Amino acid sequence: MKVDTHIHLYDEKYEDIIDEVIKSAIDKGVKRIIVNGIDKNTSIKSIKLANKYDYLYVAIGLHPSEINSNEENDLSWIYDLAKDDKVIAIGEIGLDYYWDKTYNDLQKEIFIKQIKIANELNLPVIVHSRDAHKDTFDIMKKYQTKGILHCYQSSLELAKEYVKLGYFLGIGGVLTFKNSKVIKDVVREISIDYLLTETDGPYLTPSPFRGKLNRPEYISYIINEISNIKNLDKDVIEEKIFNNYKRLFKE
Ligand code: NI
After folding, report:
1. pTM here?
2. Tens-place pLDDT, residues 121-176
């Protein structure tokens, strides 16, 4: 059974084809799909989707790029939405210094608050980190929790540190890109016991579908690549990753 721990299925690009996308994924063995919200509105949409389809679960949270000074920084909605049985994680949360540095401090503050909420609710976190490798690591180290570094893009050195702390690394379509040397090294060196698979759809479509809409069924291309790099059978990879999913998430 394959797992996709990170996708944004409420995106309008899926709107007209959602039944087919989900059916096709399930037919191809993707038996766990975590829809990740990026704010209150998309978290609600994710819960609605998950209550409509089998095998779908939800992460709710406030994404760093959605944080600005005008934003209502009250996070009490997370407690309310977390009551739904389909909610199994807090995400997508984290730090993103790529676009705008104005709110870096506010991002950190809200990231930490959401980790504390996750710990309180005994839920793992799904973490986004872009151009913020050190700050993300420092926070994940200081505020011990459990969870995934989604679409892992940092160094092998840092990957080893994360694994020491018990965190999982989310491996997605980037692994299939020709020039993604660092992430290939990470997959080679880090134990399969700490890897999870994800699409991050609609973004980061794996090769050979780059430029097209990303779909959960493409998880098989990521598994193929992990299998090649680690020189392990695809079925073994699939089973190990499913076990990792079960270790981290309580449905
Ligand atoms: Ni995402």
Report:
1. 0.97
2. 999 999 999 999 999 999 999 999 999 999 999 999 999 999 999 999 999 999 99
- Domains, the chain, in order of start with CATH, read 2-249 (3.20.20.140)
**Residue 211 CA, ligand 1 centroid: distance in Å:** 17
Report pLDDT for 71.
61
Ligand 1 centre to CA of 237 (Å) is: 23
Give 200 Cα–ligand 1 centroid separation in angstroms. 5
Asked if 48 and 87 touch (Cβ cutoff 8 Å), the reply is no
CA of 127 to the centre of ligand 1 (A): 9
Q: Is the CB of residue 171 less than 8 Å from the CB of residue 198?
A: yes
Residue-wise DSSP of 56-73 = EEEEE---GGG--TTS--
Check pLDDT > 70 for residue 92. Answer: yes
Q: For residue 9, with 0-12 CB atoms within 10 Å meaning exposed, 13-18 middle and 19 or more buried, which class applies? A: buried
Task: Give the pLDDT confidence of 42-67 residue by residue, as tens digits.
Answer: 999 999 999 999 999 999 999 999 98
Q: How far is the CA of 101 from the centre of ligand 1 (A)?
A: 19
